[in-house]
Design a protein that fits this description.
Elements lengths: L9 H10 L4 E5 L7 E8 L2 E8 L5 H11 L2 H4 L7 E5 L4 E5 L4 E2 L9 H15 L4 E3 L2 H14 L6 H13 L5 E6 L8 E4 L2 E4 L6 E3 L6 H5 L1 H4 L1 H11 L6 H22 L2 H16 L1
Antiparallel strand pairs: 1-2, 2-3, 3-5, 4-5, 6-9, 7-8, 8-11, 9-10
Helix pairs in contact: 4-9, 5-6, 5-10, 10-11
Amino acid sequence: MTSGLDNLTPRQRTLLDSWLPGARVERDHSWGLVATTVLELTYAGSRFIVKAGGHTDSHIERELHAHRHWSTPWTSMGRAPTLAHGDTEAKLLVTTYLPGKLVLGSEHADICATYRQAGELLALFHAQVVVEDDDYEGRENAKALASLSGTHRIGAATVERLRAEIAAWPTPAVTLVPTHGDWQPRNWLVHEDVVSVIDFGRAALRPASTDFARLAVRDFRRNPALEEAFLDGYGTDPREAAAWHRDQVREAISTATWAYRVGDEQFEAQGHRMIEALALA
């Protein structure tokens, strides 16, 4: 194996060679903005996806946890990749390959049936575990305030307004469920009109409504019929007004600050638009 493997650590290379000896790299799917290498390989007549995290990576651990504890409702139907190998300390995992093309940028991104299926899939994921957490809101507020204290391009007056708003929020106990964390068309595949799910790198226990946040900013705003179809598939709407507003503000701050740090100007601009829209709401 040669192409695309130079970014792997010696430990990751050793593990990969032991799991898939003689495998061949077919394509490099790495995003480029973060230190995660994503490769498509063939081994023994089958295709696999390899993900290798960099030194500061926190996504591989979360992805492995999701595969081991929460993915069954999807993998049992062939609607998500199955974990083949994984090592948390080495920040390395191997999954089966799912056929299909990304919904993002395809004609399926504007079809209601796609969003109805996505809603159905998400409902299955959320229904697995329910946890009550007294400290979630306080933790998330602290993260948002820390992001505002870091490097970003949010205006000083806006920062002060956001700080004051967050400080005034209540911190009630909330119900947490397994969430995907990046639920949107760039993490959905479609094959023969069937939607499947990829990338569990942001999976964690959160309020169910947080998995609506990225769809609400772009897809639901672009076409309300897509939101209707999604809710029809999901079966209900978990977004309570006050909590949903807090979710949106924290998501907007996270988007603008994280995208600035990794140099994704398009995503950063989206974060600034989110902040502006919330201020006008």
